[in-house]
Amino acid sequence: MGGNATLEYNYLDATYPANHPLIYADAEIDHYIGIIERNLALAPEQQDWFIYGTLDAWICDALKKYPVNARTVVNMGSLTPWYEAMLIYFGAKPTTMDYNSITLRTERMTFMTIAEWERRRPVFDVGFSISSFEHDGLGMYGDPLDPDGDLKAMRKMKERIRRGGLLYLAVPTGRDKVLFNNARIYGRHRLPLLLAGWQPIDAFGFHAGDLEGNGSAQPLYVLRNL
User: Fold this and answer.
1) Fewer CB atoms near the end CB (10 Å): N or C, the chain?
2) What residues have CB less than 8 Å from 53, skipping those under 6 apart?
3) Contacts of 17 by beta carbon, 8 Å cutoff, 6+ apart
4) 147-204: per-residue pLDDT in tens?
5) Architecture of domain 6-225
């Protein structure tokens, strides 16, 4: 990026064998829905979220403000059905897309590999990407190396989401950096490139000072597909 981003070595291998896929079952989804229900019944200072702490609370706030009830939602990237459970709780039937295979033992969600989407090209009402696109193109999940993999993923989302539909997006925000092969941090230079072609309509947890931070901030952006 012409010297606008720093590079740091942070190698991880998060692939897993095709003959040993993740398994998502109703029992796990019900367990997560129970956690969501208990947290939403508590005051914010008493809540104890499962994966990203305060970000999970912001996501629930966003799903209340911009409902997904009875809408088709595509969830990009998944290692556990936590966010699928959240979408189910708020009335959606999510479809998860990932490079790696997931076996479903539930009828409350569907799954599609990236390769399957390329063949079938379905369109959804809403997109959901929580800590996903910052990894695209870096290879940690077995995806092909591409320095602009994240920007291309956002452009593909414009094809996956109907015009006027929303994208809920969370990425690490701070001074521009690549933690190779793990993730990117989005600051004043890379974040505008990532959001190009989308209309920001809301943000949860974002502060202007985050753009100069160390990347520990991960606000939620709500974007409209133009």
Assistant:
1) C
2) none
3) none
4) 999 999 999 999 999 999 999 999 999 999 999 999 999 999 999 999 999 999 999 9
5) 3-Layer(aba) Sandwich (3.40)
